[in-house]
Each structure stands twice: as structure tokens, then as C-alpha cells.
Amino acid sequence: MAEPDYDVLDSEQSCRAFTRETLAELKEVGADMDEPHLIEHHLFGVDFDKLEKAVVELAKKGFEVEDADEVEMEDGSTGYCCDVMTESVLQQDEINQQTDLIFSLVVKFDLEYDGWGTYLPELDGDEYEDDDEPVMH
Questions:
Q1: Torsional sign, CA 23, 25, 31, 32
Q2: Is 18 helix (H, G, I), strand (E, B) or coil?
Q3: pLDDT along the chain (137 residues), means of 10
Q4: Cβ(37)–Cβ(88) under 8 Å?
Q5: Residue 12: what pLDDT?
Q6: How many other CB atoms are there within 10 angstroms of residue 34's CB atom?
Q7: d(CA 119, CA 128)
Q8: CA 108, 91, 4 angle in degrees (round to 5)?
Q9: Is 16 buried (19+), middle (13-18) or exposed (0-12) by CB count in 10 A?
Q10: Please, what is the end-to-end C-alpha distance for the chain in angstroms?
Q11: What is the per-residue DSSP string for 42-83?
Q12: Is 135 left (phi over 0), alpha (psi -120 to 50) or beta?
């Protein structure tokens, strides 16, 4: 899959453009767009407390939250990344609702939103397993 033209999703419009592009590519590779899929949204922040506050709000909204991972940045500083997940059909309106909520928290807590990805078990003929790799940008 092609890489998007942007690295960080820094506006609601860029989130929607990312979703349009991702959904078009998923449809092109044969994803079942009407079947619920596990959607992983990727968050990043340099302040662990702010990231934690955002994911607590998302957990209250029904998202499943993975533990945050500490990452070393190119400049030697530390940051934290975390995935939040939900099941959803692969439809623009459904994903927009998720990204709108997530982006509002990104702005509120001074985080970065790195987009979303999903697993396509229907292309492998297998059910989702924890060690499957998601299709992501």
C-alpha cells in the first residue's frame, strides 16, 4: 500500500483524508467493507500523564486500550505510544466518528494522532489472532 502524503494527522480534515485513502486501498485489496473489523488507532505523546488521561477518556467511551510503550526519539528524548481499539465496519462515517473523537482529545491533551489500521482476516481465510499484523499506513 502507498504511504500517505503526510506524517502526522494534524487536523480533522487530514484525519478524514487519511480515512478516505485508507478505505479506498482496503476496498481495492478486497476487504469486506460491511463486516466489523478490529480498528487500531495510534496515539503518541511526550507527556505520559496526558496520554494516560486521553486513553482513560477513550476507555470510558468503549475503546479497548493497550498499555503505552516508551520509545526513544531520534534526538534522544523519550515519548510514549499507545493503541486504542474498537470494532467497526469499514465505512467513512463510522471511522470519522472515531477519528473526530480521538482528534478532539489529541488537541485537548497535546498529543499526536498517527492514524489507524486494521486486520484483514477475510483475505487470509483465518480468524484474527493476537500475533496477526495489521494493515496500516
A1: positive
A2: helix
A3: 52 90 93 95 96 97 96 93 96 96 96 92 60 49
A4: yes
A5: 86
A6: 8
A7: 7
A8: 65
A9: middle
A10: 8
A11: EEEES-HHHHHHHHHHHHHTT-EEPPPEEEE-TTS-EEEEEE
A12: beta
How far is the C-alpha of 84 from the C-alpha of 6, rounded, in Å? 21
Residue 11 sits at φ, ψ, to 5 deg, of -160, 160
Cα 72 from Cα 79, distance rounded (Å):
6
Taking phi over 0 as left and psi of -120 to 50 as alpha, with beta for the rest, 74 belongs to: alpha
Q: Which pTM does this prediction carry?
A: 0.82
CA distances to 58, 67, 71, 127 from 13, rounded to whole Å, are 21, 28, 28, 33
Secondary structure of residue 127 in the 3-state scheme: coil
DSSP assignment string, 76-120: S-EEEEEEEEEEE-S-HHHHHHHHHHHHHHHHHHT-EEEEEEE--
Rounded to 5°, the CA angle 67-41-49 comes to 45
The three-state secondary structure class of 136 is strand
